[in-house]
Amino acid sequence: xxxxxxxxxxxxxxxxxxxxxxxxxxxxxxxxxxxxxxxxxxxxxxxxxxxxxxxxxxxxxxxxxxxxxxxxxxxxxxxxxxxxxxxxxxxxxxxxxxxxxxxxxxxxxxxxxxxxxxxxxxxxxxxxxxxxxxxxxxxxxxxxxxxxxxxxxxxxxxxxxxxxxxxxxxxxxxxxxxxxxxxxxxxxxxxxxxxxxxxxxxxxxxxxxxxxxxxxxxxxxxxxxxxxxxxxxxxxxxxxxxxxxxxxxxxxxxxxxxxxxxxxxxxxxxxxxxxxxxxxxxxxxxxxxxxxxxxxxxxxxxxxxxxxxxxxxxxxxxxxxxxxxxxxxxxxxxxxxxxxxxxxxxxxxxxxxxxxxxxxxxxxxxxxxxxxxxxxxxxxxxxxxxxxxxxxxxxxxxxxxxxxxxxxxxxxxxxxxxxxxxxxxxxxxxxxxxxxxxxxxxxxxxxxxxxxxxxxxxxxxxxxxxxxxxxxxxxxxxxxxxxxxxxxxxxxxxxxxxxxxxxxxxxxxxxxxxxxxxxxxxxx
Length: 524
Prior knowledge:
Blueprint: E1 3-8, E2 11-16, E3 19-24, E4 36-43, E5 49-54, H1 58-72, H2 76-99, H3 113-123, H4 128-139, H5 145-156, E6 166-170, H6 176-185, E7 192-195, E8 215-218, H7 225-237, E9 239-247, E10 253-261, E11 265-271, E12 284-287, H8 292-306, H9 312-327, E13 333-335, H10 351-368, E14 375-377, E15 384-387, H11 390-407, H12 413-429, E16 433-434, H13 436-442, H14 447-459, E17 463-469, E18 474-479, H15 486-523
Parallel strand pairs: 6-11, 6-12, 7-8, 8-11, 13-15
Antiparallel strand pairs: 1-2, 2-3, 3-4, 4-5, 9-10, 14-15, 16-18, 17-18
Helix pairs in contact: 1-2, 3-9, 4-9, 10-11, 11-15, 12-14
């Protein structure tokens, strides 16, 4: 009885007495239209016969069969039957392997009835935001309550019709990847696609199934225009179309179009020492806390974890509850009746993109609080939707206030942080002048990094040169009055407060009109 035995992908044996055939190198799975094999055929005590041929090629098969018949004095019909049976079994083996080629399907996360009821109870609770922050803290995200809330809301919007994208920027060693890993552990299986790194060209050939209705997580995003531009296009237009020349199997050149389609929900981490706000990116950019107090809080958590004071059961429970919360959200149409009353502060750069980000984030908050909002029916179309409330807008203003401050700042994040430290240092030293050597005596900073900070501050007239010499002790610098951001912050806060007051008046007026309408209907 003929038998095909697969020892591994590169060695297959076929025994059909009196023949013993070894297929060296296995079978090519990429070219289904061919069956190119290297055969080592043994017959009784004769030396084995070796041949490389395409089993689908009649001429090569004919040559092999006649060669075996002449060499070992065999009947042509017997050799033909053996090769025919071998070809059939190799075909079955290859088709079986092609079924499992590629990635294995991961089961989708589905909470049971008890978990879904508990998740709905949490989503309907008035303390939903506090419970969310408490669970995120339990998972190990410490001291980043606002940033963690923004990131989690963005992740939860992956099934929303207009998902939200966030770029997490910080220096090396702050904990960007740690937060992304912790948030990924809170996502249901099959709801996200995690990548350590993606090259710019890879985006144009990306699998759309890894984007559509999924969160795209990138641990190490290249902070370059070549990488950010296609991501921005995919976020704004929902598709990437790339046409390039390719060569077919006959050596002829022709144009091939590759298209990636999907609603992008992106969470990415990047080391940023450049201010690329000039690109007007359609992503919210948040900056992690790297203060000394945050360092102490993180190190205290690390010590407690090493001492066994952090229970793994509590972490797993919090992660499971957050997965159930995300899985319990449904895509629903959202209308913001107060969108016409929202006006951005005049100091915010790129007002078109900034306003679009703000309105999108307000919708994401409403989407997350959907179980606390009454569903309404459009009388004309019959479509079911929920409406944004003033509480959603107030929460969006509170969470994005620092981001709006950053968009109004002309300095890079690292230069702004250095400027804040510099003003505190000069105030403590009770002087208004300094040199680069004075700073290096107080703070450990690389000379080139310090020179870059000073050049940027001098370029924007935040400091000025008052004396000294480049070759003898360095220049003497002095702060100017331009660096004070208090006025800008006050204007932004006042503009946001005015927005909230207008919205609250419109809301009160609407509620009063509905109450009068209901009383009239009851009277009738």
